[in-house]
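re: ur question from yesterday

yeah so i grabbed the chain u mentioned. its 300 aa long if i counted rite. heres the sequnce exactly as i have it in my notes:
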Amino acid sequence: MNILLIIAVAPVALLLIYIYKRDAIEKEPAKMLRKAFGGGCLCILLDLLIVLPMQAIFGDASEWHGFFWSTFGQAFLEAGIPEELCKFLVLYWLIWKAPDFDEHFDGIVYATFVSMGFACLENILYVFQYGADTGIMRAVTAVPGHFFFAVVMGYYFSRAKFDIPNRKSNMIKCIIYPMIVHGIYDMILFMMKRISDSEDDSLSYIVGILLIAFFFFNFKLWRHGFRRVKELREKDLSDMAQNRRAIDYLNDPSLEFRESNYTPAAGISSSKERNYSPADSVSSYKDPFSTESKSKFPID
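ran it thru and got these structure tokens back, copy pasting raw so excuse formatting
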């Protein structure tokens, strides 16, 4: 197998294996995962249908006048916003009404497979065009970036599904927050690249500052992502345990069961034919973007 293909695909495969293994209750059907991954690959074409006409009208953002607006256009208007919009549209189209989307963690799983489909095809194109060094660099930057953007999207996608009273606000967050995080991520990188390419030694300290900002932002993004993965995984495990206790109590009323600690689900069995439903209270969620959060950083 071509070494460049291995370099391009390996980081994507590792992240997909990780998120698949974290699905604690019941693994998602292979057919649905293939559809999500294939839909993510399709996002590349959808993205081009948005970006190319925009560039034909307004020109390439890299050639716009003004350092800030040029990098902003590259990071947000040509990358973050259209890419995350395409991922969301595919995710919603394929997954929202799917019977297998019946656990909180499923939202992160499917969003990740969609995003990794996009990242895989994009990575292959970049690596075969620019070589192995680009692939190694993207393995620790762009690919994990797409993974954690997907965690943010999948987290709020699940909240929109199961927290019905707050569905509209969570759906908006599902769309907007990945765009913001993706745009900031890319903008820091584009600013570093443009300053480095200018060959102005007097600006080298700015590159250092941006590099520190990039690592800090990544640290926050990774910590936020792993926390959201853990939160939804534990939510599903907790709900499953509560349902099992309820079933045991119904089968044997002599068992101690405190109703105040449990809200019965709308239905005990699910489309996956098990004694579990995620329709319990969602009060355990902690919205890291809400004004109630003590953190001043939006993805803490």
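noticed a couple things. The two ends are 41 Å apart (CA to CA). also Confidence is low (pLDDT under 50) at residues 259-298.
anyway ttyl
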